[in-house]
Fold these 2 entries.
Entry 1:
Amino acid sequence: MAIQGPTRTLMSSACWRCQIQAERNVRRFASIQNKTQARRNSNYATPKQWLPYYPIETQKACWIQLKNRTLIRIGGPDATDFLHNLIPAPVLPLDDKTHIIFSAFLNAKGRIIHDVFVYKPAKDGANEWLLDVDTNSAPAVVSHLKKHKLRSKFKLEKLSPEEAAVMYVWPRADQGEMKLSPNMLLDPRPGMGMRVYTTAVDETRKTFTTNDSAQELKWEDYMIHRMLNGLAEGPVEIASGSALPQESNIDFCGGIDFHKGCYLGQELTIRTHHTGIVRKRILPVQIYTDDDPISHDQTAPIYNPSLSLPQPPNEANISKCGAKGRSGRSTGKWLGGYGNIGLALCRLETMTDLSLTAEGSQYNPETDEFEVSWDAGQGENDAEGQSKKTSVKVKAFVPPWLRQGIENTIKARNDRSQARRRQAEEDEEDEVD
């Protein structure tokens, strides 16, 4: 005898409700697996769409060893599930074109504690991963992983600089995805080039150095390249314990999946996405003075190596010039820079022309100027006995990839609101009928 369930005939020895729910879960999981990669890139610009800043005039590809990054190996039967439940990005599926994930480890309150690149190096089925983290944060990352390991079966190992290294390569536009190493993979962040992980450091450096089509650059070139694209990295620019993943633009780098299962810090991240508005984001900025003003027609920061300007301290407040009282409250925070460019956490509707709500932007590019000021130093006072202040003016810019991502996010939020209103109207009509 069989019992007729809501959708199909099942054996009487089983609960048809449980079987139907299980089958629905299987179909839902398969659908999520198939759509994860499409969803990761559907609303956001992919790195190939934006031409990265090229640091110097040369006919060769540029490369640099990132000595500020350390690799951590994690391998074992439970390694994949462990990572999938700890970071907001989907670990699987990882196809041939997406071997790197840029995401972050969050605390229980949804704040970033460490940014991380996740590599899937093994192609032989081995359940092994490499984590690319800031060198100064590596011991803390290991402690964080061990704290949540519990009974998971995997091995954890921090690799020394002699054992493994991370390199970065950005080819010229006409060279495409030039392969100097089999482990050269596309950086998932917009406007960036290729990342290379290697466990044969000396051999890889020798290959790069002796290659006539590649040129080694300085650390400053990589910083300038990254900051002009508006991308923060490391605990100094992404403040550990206080930065939010959306404010750090990790959502536009494919580092958050708003449809995946539970992970540490999920509650605030999902609530911000569905019910809140991200009013602050990290933007590229340019500092200047009255003696060397900035052009109102300028659409992107311009690095000028000849300028020698004082660098504001990390997390110094940015405020509107001439504003006092409540109108003089902080409009952003300086995160770090080099020369006359840098990164800052900015209020979008105050420092840019972006409109996040119906109220619109309050920014007037012709009249509004912003500055960051800080104490000159101990023992230095002005004529009135007050501590001397040093200040520079700051102008924020919105990269094309970030503008497109914000516009797509606003459109998706409006579409969800309209869908909810239509559903509410239909429910009211059904109740009347």
Note: The chain has nine helices and 18 strands.
Entry 2:
Amino acid sequence: MPGRTEPRTGREGGGERRLWLICTAWLLLNAISQGLVSGTADRDQAEQLLLSQSWQLGYGPQPPLYTYLVKLVFLVTGPALWPLLGLKVGLLSLLVAALLGVGRELAFSARQQLIAVSGLALIPQLIWESQRDLTHSVLATSVAALTLLQLLRLQRQPTATGYAGLGLLAAAGLLSKYSYGLFLASLVLAALSLPSFRRVLLRPRLILSLAIPAALVLPHLQWVVDHAPLSLGGLEKLELEGGLASRPRGLLSAAAAALAFLSPFWLAAVAVLWRSSSAGEEQPSAAIGGGRSQRARLLLRLPLCLAAVLLAFVLATGASRIKDRWYQPLLFYAPVSVAVLAGALDRRRQRALVAAAVVAATATSLLLPGRTVLAGLTGRNDSRTAPLLPLLAQVQREQGRPDWIVASGTFLGGNARQVFEATPVLTPKVTIAAGDGRHTGQDARVLVLVDPNHRAEELTTLLQTRFGRTLRAGELQPVSAPPLWGWGTPEAYTIRYAWIGAKQPE
């Protein structure tokens, strides 16, 4: 059938594997370096350490799939930082593999594949934030890339298994992050605009792609309805407004956020694609000619269809604030789209893009661990310099293990799980605990932990509700340690703790 292209194999396939292995090794190196400089879990990581204590249909304003993966990993490893770092490496490696697979479906040359992968290094949300502390966005982006790849494969070979696979990926994406729905809508819209993809999507087998996500996502949607205040709490970030005046602000915010997300990549892309005045250089349109034009045009129409979907979203909801980081599952394919156009252009400019990506990747490898080291040396406030693990280990050595831990915040509570692995941890916002039959009455031995940024009074309601107890004046004891990587005489980091319930050990 016209427009179909078989994936390339042989030496080019070997080159793709080497490129994937190089990227995976780089990601692994960055994870190891971050783990070596500090064992303290960052904010989002600490949240996952807490949420993964039990299975639930929902945990808050984000879908539950990432937390499910974390819990599965912790069943093998126990709660700790290094499994979280390893999971992140696996997801980002999967993203690279999916994009290479997309390039293979588009019959990319080795140079085009290199551009598609190198471009990721020029998008800070992908190369920096994803390795620093993001969670759900990373999973949603990897699933979105796999969804794009699956659609291309389905167009080449429309089997029942392929339709089922597309449905499973759609369900996984919707259970990863709600914004994936915007990507899926733009992908379907782009596909319906092209004859070869339209024929695939309008077949009776599409019912598999619709029924599977409906069945898998429905239980979570029911949870969302039953827990609306908790599950819809994230909508406040959109600053929804009812008046017509908010629509222009929302559209401007969406456009500015997209440009911010793609910076500095879009500058490099313009430099690569800018028409040269030298005679004989081919036009960008040559890169999408021939039998693969339908597939290439899908990649080029995706941003336009996304703009249409976002326009409808802003007009319908009145959202007046869109953040750049929300575009990660929506515009991850931008380097692939540039690679489609860059296939026949000047090699020197392509090499310049790759060189810029190498510089960005090198700087990232230095700064990911360096941010913690430099923060400690300069005395700046950075969560990963907090010496929580040694402080909590000291409390454990002196006082033993409690039946329960009540922490004043997610950051402190999540890190407490790394030290008190078998002890359920509660906070005012995360009251999930393992149902293992532990006592919750006044005979329960409870360790109360208070972060420097919180007040003990914030725990009053939780302590009274769960244990029928409260803290008395003077019960909290301080324990301090210098920040990690501090030098000279840095200000000590102090947490406070108290034991309530059963008598403390002598």
Note: The chain has two domains: 11-38+80-227+242-342+359-369, 383-500.
